[in-house]
TrEMBL record:
Pfam families: PRA-PH (PF01503)
InterPro entries, per database record: HisE, PRib-ATP_PPHydrolase-like
Family: Belongs to the PRA-PH family.
Catalytic reaction(s) noted: 1-(5-phospho-beta-D-ribosyl)-ATP + H2O = 1-(5-phospho-beta-D-ribosyl)-5'-AMP + diphosphate + H(+)
Enzyme nomenclature, EC number: 3.6.1.31
Bilayer-crossing regions: none
Any single biological process term in GO: L-histidine biosynthetic process
NCBIfam families the record matches: histidine_hisI, PRK00400.1-3
Protein name: Phosphoribosyl-ATP pyrophosphatase
Enzyme kind, highest EC tier: hydrolase
Entry GO terms, CC: cytoplasm
Keywords: Amino-acid biosynthesis, ATP-binding, Cytoplasm, Histidine biosynthesis, Hydrolase, Nucleotide-binding
Organism the protein comes from: Solimonas aquatica
């Protein structure tokens, strides 16, 4: 079984590679073709499905919905030219600070 970070890195490589793919054969390419609005709509749907799953006891169902949510979020990042490196840097910047202090330091 691959380490989670390796799975994420490989998926991000695949998402980059799909930028020139045919929307008829690639789900990711079909999302890119829908643009930010279409991808964001899927993220909204997956977020709602995650909330519903969180209120039930089926852990595997919750994992599946979270995976859908993370996947579509990574598609949005790739579409906008953002990288896992940038996401990691933002989370690392917050590491070790209290969540309340992090919120207070955010640009308004
Ligand atoms: N990880 C995923 C992944 N997770 C979820 N999905 C798709 O996300 C969709 C989830 O949407 P829903 O649950 O709403 O299901 P749906 O009703 O079928 O979706 P819609 O038709 O309404 O969009 C499904 O179509 C899933 O197949 C994914 N599609 C692709 N990947 C990865 O992306 C790679 C590239 O995919 P292609 O671009 O299709 O080659 C794949 O090899 C995988 O590694």
């Amino acid at each position: 079984m691959s380490a989670p970070q390796d799975v994420l890195l490989k998926l991000c490589e695949t998402l980059e590679a799909r930028k020139g793919a045919d929307a008829k054969t690639s789900y990711v390419a079909s999302l890119y073709a829908k643009g930010v609005d279409g991808i964001a709509k899927k993220i909204g749907e997956e977020a709602a499905e995650t909330i519903i799953a969180a209120k039930n006891d089926d852990d595997q169902a919750l994992i599946r919905e979270l995976a859908d949510l993370w996947f579509h979020s990574l598609v949005l990042m790739a579409h906008r030219g953002l990288t896992l490196q940038q996401l990691g840097e933002e989370l690392a910047r917050r590491s070790g600070t209290s969540g309340h202090a992090e919120k207070a330091a955010r640009p308004q």
